[in-house]
Batch of 2 targets.
Target 1
Amino acid sequence: MSFMPHLARGLSEDSILMLYHRDDGKYKAVYCSSDDDIIRDISIDSGEGSVGRAAALKTESVHFDTAGVADMLANYHEENRELLYRIFGERKIPSFSGSYPVVTGENIDYVIDFYGFGERSLTAKEEHRLMSLLTGLLNLRINILQSSRPRADVGKIADTPIFTAEQLNEINNDLLAISGYCQLASQDPNLTGTVESSFKSIMELTEKMAAGFKSLASIPELQDKFGPDRVNLRDIIRDVFKRNAISGNLHMIEGRAFSVNLNLQNIPDLDLRVKDAVAIIEGMSKSFVKSVGDDEIITISTYANDKYVYIDISRHREKFPPVEPVIGFGIYAPAQNYESRFAETGFLRLLSELAGEFAYDRYSKNASYYSLRLPIKATSGIAAKPSGKTLSILAIDDQAVILDLLAAMCQSLGYTIYTARDGEDGIRIFQTKKPDLVISDLAMPNLSGWDVASRIKAISPGTPVIIITGWGVTVDEGKMKQAGADFLLHKPFRLEQLSEIITKAGFSRINS
């Protein structure tokens, strides 16, 4: 039910949004954006009024004028009809109503009911399209979440994955198209606040569902099908310390309460798994607090230079400043050199696997600081941006909806865009148009994204290649390097993420 206020924010202010839940064969009102007290007495039979009809027929029940809404209301039992009129209040008969079933498997467990009144910033048909889209996204989100839950028969894991890679990729394409076009449309300066809010609500929902795909990584039959994520260690630190927060800046670590100050500067994203990033932060913290006194404060800092991302953790008295950034004086060495000394939490083993380095206070019995640094992967051999001309990009994807979206996004960023529906056509266009950058889908018939990258690099080794893939597709880092692909972008992605990865490939946004 927590999603209802989120939906309500994307609709006209003078409207009513309700939610009904199936309980003992009836649909009982459990949420109302207008009056939560009255709804407790509303209980609707299957087939009764618009809500009961939508549930019984498993389809939307929509009325676009006052007369149609009045006829629909007449089909409710008298007691329910009177309660609805009380909710409407002085607004009386709505000019639009729509009931939208939420399908969970074979059942209709929920029905969303919407009423619009008088003149509104959105027309009735616009509100209907928006509600249909939001309900469709909600249906998809619920099914994703249900599929990610542990199954009852945990004794034996089925051989067939819950979602195949193809199914995940198809859903990702749909999410990307919905979110992408909303992002482009929301840039129109002539939009009303309500319409812009509606677009933002849709984008937020698609992002939440995309996050649902990540949760599938914990399912045994899918856990090895995901490559590294693009994560920001600053965000990971915030999440870790939000979970162990007690009150204010007090945090529980290893069974003790500590005052913790977070001094987190902006740092670049890194290619590593979220679970590894969490393990490093938690392990580093648990190891360090063993040397922290009860009257000391812990400060955790993040910063970066052009080669590394740094995390410092230090201890100090309340009225004394924290340790200066360790980058200025620390002696860093490969993390594996210290694994035996700090073996209890295992964070240095993970740091070592990621080519990280470690420094610590060697001259005190109880170390006053730890510092780690992880390399920001440099992109070698990337061609410089041609001066005096607009950046040109070749996009290759066998899905027309994604290809059109990529073209629209790149054009909105000021780039010249060429498109191809398959790898062979893409290679031909590359040879004739000589674009500055190539973006290719991974899963395509005939030539895959790896094949495209390999052939592009054979023709022009300095041309950056970005591979786009969905969450359900196996990402083989060895094959990625062998093919010469430079970057990986997961669907669904936002416009600014596409712009950022193009920038990381060695280019600047046109007209920035």
Target 2
Amino acid sequence: MIKFEPILSGNILIMVLGVLALISVFQVFYYLFKKVERRYLKVFLFLLFSSLLSLFILNPTWEKELPGSSALLIPESENKAHFSDFSKELEVDKVIKAGERAEGFRQLYIFGENYKKEELLSLPLVDMEWIPSSDKSFVVLDLGWEGILKYGQEQKITGILNSEKSQKLQLRFVNEVWAEQTLEDGEQSFELVFSALILGKNEMDLYLDESKIGTVRYFVMGPEQMSFELKVGFPNPETRFFADYLRKRGELVSLRTQVAQSSSIVAGEELADRSVLVIDPSQLKSVDVNKLGSDYQAVLLTNVNNPELDISELNRKFGTSFTINRISEKSVEKENGTSAQAFDFVTKFNQDTLKNSATAFEMKGDHTIAVSLMEDSFSLLLSGDSIGYAKVWEPVFEKLSMGNKNSFQLSSPVFRNLKSNISFLGASDSPNNLQNEQLSFTWKKDALIGDMYFSRFIPLESGWIYFSDSLSIYVEDEESFKAVKGRKILIEFLKERRDYGFGSERITSKSNIPAWLWFVLILISASLLWVEPRYRS
């Protein structure tokens, strides 16, 4: 069926077509009533010219069903000859480069990631399949991390690398290794996990052996304030240093030390309604189980001397199912210089463990029960290694916090001129402090999570974008992680096309008369109009 898509619109279209119609009527009547020589030929030639001009303005289009053919799309920088064998394996009819006309195919195979957004948007609405490249020139094929974290939260860097041999992937900060993983040769996935322990802007370098392959940048906000109630049966350095660290962290801390059966010494601040209760085995019997979930959001058992007996008592008290296995006859020395009891936890359903902190957790609905087998982590503070101490205990606090309110989620890397998503989990309302001359956000409420807000944005500048002393985000430039950016462009493009229906339906392509043909036809008809009066029979 023929449709019209005029090159003009509105009143201008009506006016132009009206003028052409009036001129045509006038000319026809003039030729017929004046009885000029070859008047019928003149009428035909003039109507032909005016009709062609009118159709050019109306721009007729029609749809035709696509044949069952397919094509392989390759980046503009590639050589078609190199894909001869590959195209035969795919059984495609043609290999085309990005930027070439891609009309007339039922299916397109998109090879690789090196495409401009404009090249992808020009592709027709047909069935598409993406074939990732195995280009050895790209070391980092895929990469992702959290762009905004709260202090102590777990940062997880995941991705895919091309490794020519067995190598060690390391994340370094000022020559100190924060996380590492050994990779085999070939295409390898990886995951580096560590706690965010440096407030503000963080820039950490990724190294493959001694070769730097990129920089990971993210922002760490201050932690949400928590309340800790410490109850111990005797004063000890582990508990005292633990309480001092929490106070320096900005938490509300109350320390109750039992000095006799009916008396105790209390030091610290008034606590909030839901606090974390930290106890040693001597205080297990005194805990009121009915207060769990209301007064206490979590219970942490520390200073365990007899693990088998103490954990058995913990299980009876709180209905937990912690299980341990002995792994040696004496305390286990950790790499960070601390020591822990000679046992390992057997992880069960609804449980989690932190090996570096020798701590296990069991979720019980609205509260968490945890037990730590650490013996002398305070020795790190005595030696001045506060970062080492934080690496032990911050992951524990993160597990005990029961989630973070007023926190952001930003999937990085964020690239200039590409869409990105940011979300905010707030107590009541969307954030109003994220706006400056470089970037602003329009927040929408999540339909499924009541306290969640999200926004889509396109940064136009690269580098650190400052919002306040407590929040900045980093935007990558054009040269950073090119393969990752290419994948992100393709994935975003394919998501936008995912609602297009295929299968047994007719797949059609829109066609029209090309501009050059219109030019030739109108030129010929105008030439005939000019030549006819000058022709002598």
